[in-house]
Amino acid sequence: MTSVANETVPLAGRPVRRIGFGAMQLPGPGVFGPPPDREAALAVLRRAVELGVDHIDTAQYYGPDVANELIHEALHPYPPDLVIVSKIGGKRDPQGGWHPALSPAELRAGVEDNLRSLEVDRVEVVNLRLFDATGSDAFDEQLDEMITMRDEGLIGGIGLSNVSLEAFEHAAARTEIACVQNALNLVDRAALPLLERCRAAGVPFVPFFPLGSAFDSRKPVLEHHAVRAAAERLDALPSQVAIAWLLALAPNTLLIPGTSSLQHLEENLGAANLVLDDEALASLNDAS
């Protein structure tokens, strides 16, 4: 394996570096409400772009309305090489609960909200976020609306999030898919068959929760003995080892680790320079 620091992957026709930035951790606890330190959140976004990040993942319902507003304040007018990816299909209740919003009208309203808050004429990629990974009886209606909005120029590419292999195959038979975004990390490998299918189809795969679920305080990925052993031997951080392993899985993987910390941002981006040797890859591949 070699360093991926200079590698790019086409995302809806736009070349982006293998490690981007996820905005999910910028709002308050539980991805709800304003950030504890607004200036720090803005600084993280600006520093990410300074360090070469050209792919930012967000959603209007992060906050809600918080992540996009921070992105707009920190970065607008946006650098010409920056690809902003958002997702629709969810909404929040006043207590911060997560709920589906998947009717065609809700999907259109979600795109319009993103256009307004980000102050853009088009969102380069919008992921249809399914709450039931297998899709529903209304899946074709949802795809119809996504295709219509792409044809209208409101979105550049259609992505899928939290999708099963079968649902991906169904959608890909109907239209071009710009990317797939599913949970995948060292201890949660359920999406590996989907990753391989995306690789064969030339579709970028964007693992979310690359260091474990943001809602799991145990951080089992970072505490895994194979991760810690490789980190110690290679003089790296466990987080960098976990990110580098995902990048090594396939050339179509794009990472969007999120953080509200400048230190963690720089550490995460530094994983692009970490080369996992054969011993580390063998140990991590065999880890359960």
Would you kindly provide a written description of the structure presented here, covering whatever features stand out?
The structure is a single chain. It contains eleven helices and eleven strands. With 288 residues, it is an alpha/beta fold. A seven-stranded parallel beta sheet has the order 3-4-5-8-9-10-11. The protein has a two-stranded antiparallel sheet with strand order 1-2. A hairpin with a 2-residue loop joins strand 1 and strand 2. The chain starts with 7 loop residues before the first strand and ends with a helix. The model has no long low-confidence stretch (mean pLDDT 95).
Q: Brief overview, please?
A:
With 288 residues, this protein is of the alpha/beta class. It has 11 helices and 11 strands.
Helix-strand layout with pairing:
Blueprint: E1 8-11, E2 14-17, E3 21-22, H1 38-50, E4 55-57, H2 66-75, E5 83-88, E6 90-92, E7 98-100, H3 104-118, E8 123-129, H4 139-151, E9 155-161, H5 165-174, E10 179-183, H6 192-201, E11 205-208, H7 220-223, H8 225-234, H9 238-249, H10 262-270, H11 278-286
Parallel strand pairs: 3-4, 4-5, 5-8, 8-9, 9-10, 10-11
Antiparallel strand pairs: 1-2, 6-7
Strand coverage percent: 15-25%
Mind describing the biggest β-sheet? 7 strands, parallel
* SS element count, helices: 11
Strand neighbour order, sheet with most strands: 3-4-5-8-9-10-11
Mean pLDDT: 95
CATH architecture: Alpha-Beta Barrel
Highest-level CATH class: Alpha Beta
Q: Decide which structural class fits the backbone.
A: alpha/beta
Helix content: 25-40%
Low-confidence stretches: none
Order of helices and strands, N to C? EEEHEHEEEHEHEHEHEHHHHH
User: What is the third-level CATH name, the topology?
Assistant: TIM Barrel
